[in-house]
Write a structure and sequence with these properties.
By secondary structure, the chain is an alpha/beta fold. The protein has 15 helices and 17 strands.
Amino acid sequence: MQFELLKTDKESSARAGIIHTDHGDIHTPIFMPVGTQASVKAVHQSELESIIKAQIILGNTYHLFLRPGNEILNRVGGLHSFMNWKKPILTDSGGYQVFSLSARRKVKAEGVYFSSHIDGSKHLFTPESVVDTQRILGSDIMMALDECPAYPCTKPAARKSLEITKAWLERGIAHFKNTEPLYGHDQIFVPIAQGSIYDDLRIESLQFNGQFKTPVQAIGGLSVGEPAEDLYRLVHLSTQHMSVDNARYLMGVGTPANILECISAGIDMFDCVLPSRNARHGILFTTQGIMNIRNKKWKDDFKPIDEGIQCPTSNNHSKAYLRHLFVSGEILGMQIATLQNLSFYLHLVSQAREMIFIDKFQEWKNAILQVINQRL
């Protein structure tokens, strides 16, 4: 597996490239739909491929470890086989989910002890065990176990957390090197930079991670409540300390505006539950702006949901119809809205890639943000 940088925009740090994997190429910049429990909510795998044009999706080690569990996933031959998805998969280590269980977990040097949110059963995640689980999952890209500090976070607390993340990374990489893929395709192991909002800790983390040669490097611990100006400042700072030869993955970000600003800073990969979660509540991201489809103003708007993207459900169904589905409590409404939002996100990064190749990204970004940020 390798990352190939093809073009850098002349007016910004935006980049276009390809991540080559055994399950296919990933054209960057890319947005990755989140399929936490082997399912992108309200979307069938065939729709992910044919309508949304997803090139890679996410699964989550924490949730899949608890249900259906390693034994089932091992017997079926991994996550690709289990969910019948032929393209690349990235799996998070589950660290963020575990650390969000503040009342249910305890961090020790050996790992993190936690109680299942499903049945209260006790478990231990270690840097080694999450590698083993991700070997069983068979993800193309697996993430290191890290500690994601809460926001706000004092500098001493951020320092302590970073030392844990660094120690766990060394153990995780050692175990990764001592184990083999189970299903005949290559896997890579990705370090995650932490450090809360502190510049020197962020730089230290990135420099530490950089010694481990891997095609992808990740930035974690952002979009956890910090102001947008801190997010953008730390992303710009981070990419300045990351190799140009690595794909750069910003975890858990974000809004369309976040994504475009961070592409401008040199980020290549994004994931976030926002587009699918908002869709299920009737909030649509479109090429005209943001709309709440439940609002009464759409009840007799018979124009297509969004003619600016290639999404047949959005091209062929009206805003009035989609509003009717939502106010009537029909499941189809959530499905159509999710297809719209994820298609829009993939459309947006595809457009960004095209603009990078012709050195018009920055001009295009500044213009498009004026449109897509407006509330309709």
